[in-house]
Write a structure and sequence with these properties.
Distance between the termini of chain B: 17 Å
Number of helices of chain A: 3
CATH class of the domain at 1-42 in chain A: Mainly Alpha
Strand content of chain B: 5-15%
Number of strands of chain B: 11
Order of helices and strands of chain B: HHEHEHEHEHEEHEHEHHHHEHHEEH
Oligomer: heterodimer
Shape of chain A: flat
Largest interface: A-B, 54 and 77 residues
CATH topology of the domain at 1-42 in chain A: Histone, subunit A
Order of helices and strands of chain A: HHHEE
Structural class of chain B: alpha/beta
Shape of chain B: globular
Strand content of chain A: under 5%
Strand order of the largest sheet of chain B: 1-3-2-4-6-5-10-11-9-7-8
Distance between the termini of chain A: 37 Å
CATH topology of the domain at 3-257 in chain B: Amidase signature (AS) enzymes
Chain lengths: 93, 490
Amino acid sequence: MIDKKTIEIIAKLARLNITDSEASEFSVQLEKVLHNFEQISKIETTGIEPMITPTEIESFWREDIAQQNFTSDEILANAPARTGHLFKVPPVV
Amino acid sequence: MELKFASIAEIARAVKDKKISAKEITTYFLNRIESLDSKLNSFTALNQKAIKQAEDLDVRIAHGEAVGVLAGVPFGIKEMLCTKGIQTTAGSKMLSNFVPPYDSTVVSRLKASDSIILGKLNQDEFAMGSSNETSFHGSVKNPWNLDFVPGGSSGGSAAAQAARLVAGSIGTDTGGSIRQPSSFCGIVGVKPTYGRVSRYGVVAFASSLDQAGPMVSSVEDAALTLEVICGHDEMDSTTSQRPVPQWSKNISTNMNGIKVGLIKEYMRGGLDADVQRTFDESIEALKKMGAQIIELSISMTDFSVPVYYLVSGCEASSNLARYDGVRYGYRSDFKNLSSISLDEFYGKTRGEGFGSEVKRRIMLGTYCLSSGYYDAYYLKACQVRRLLTNQYLEGFQKCDVILSPVTTSPAFKIGERINDPLEMYLNDIFTTSTNLAGLPGMSIPFGISKQGLPIGMQITAKHYDEQRMLNVAAALESVSPVKGLKPYVI
């Protein structure tokens, strides 16, 4: 049962602020969607290895050579806020 | 050569032979965008350097330098793919101010082949949608009828290509996002085998499903574009190291001995009458050309929509965790940064930056990955994904390709399905299993509805067998009842 309380817990886990009306809407919609999706529970899957990627990953090696692709200014050009050559964020400690 | 409908090969040949300059071609298509796109809303940004890049190409040709196979061919690029110096928003407020410092591999390969990038194409937000109605830049209109959706998520690519605002376009396909809009807009769209095309620089939605591919006007154009964008990339460890075949040179419309599979589970009715008729006609056409029709059962396709939405939702909730307002993208307007907690900072930024469909998918994925639900949803879906893939591999021992509709109905009206997420998801019944199994799939125009909307047929092949898929598509194209039909806007 995806009640509003569950929605609020999930939103917190996802670091996603949602409004009260979004919480009500998502509660109804996700309940309906997951109820439909529960049909897969009846499929027998004992011992089946979960498939994480659809084709075989072929390993390859490259030379371990240091290279500079970007300057810090190119990267920081997209920063919402910066201080010198650093990203500016709220206090983290 | 009528430039409006010229093929990619014709344009490149004419440019190399100096029959027409790359600058004239670029100007011609930029003018078409200028005069027609206000009706469609397919472009979100233009490449301001396009004319200059075309001039530089013309100078190189004048000097007798060798140029690439796509010389002077104007391309549009879905907003999911990073383009150096040109905004790449993924259709989201979250990335509305993002200007990548690098090109995605797909774009750098197109550029290395001397194509001209005209600009960026609209899409559903983070490619989550089947109608292009979830875009931050607003809905895209279907060029065949402006009241209808172009499909999604690569709706801008499909609309721009159908209206010939570009000679070629690139889309991405996670659960049908190339094939479904291609069907809705009457163009040719290919999702290659997973691993054929590098995902480097493609905004990640669901990494085990995402593939970029061509959305163009013919099978030959698709093959040529694929030859440019496919191939191993050291920046994406999931790309295949297999050589890239010269598909365009090996296209054969000879259907003698070709075994075409039909999935029994897709034949239970419930199709729109026009789609059913088009499907029947495509089967008949292939039979007439010598193909053998084989019925097979892939019972797990009944579960492809739930498995797809569980896998893609879980992967998306993890992939989209990177949008935190720190290094790039949207950040909520905080008056005093030092007085807020990090959780508030993330929560408010993400709450304001993401649209409602993206939030719904993040919520779905987070729920299904959370403690106590992981086994029942994510793990179970991955196990069923294995069973589904195994059934496909068994099926392909009996046939060369599988033929099916792309969707149950042609394009629907704007606003018709947007308020019911489940109904919108169920739309993807025929397309999602291809991504789950990593198979190549494509849409080829083959019909038109009574309302005048295009209908495509889907061809799926086994892993890395794009050639046979393209061959069957070319055979259908050669006898297509809708060949030459064009949307009225052009």
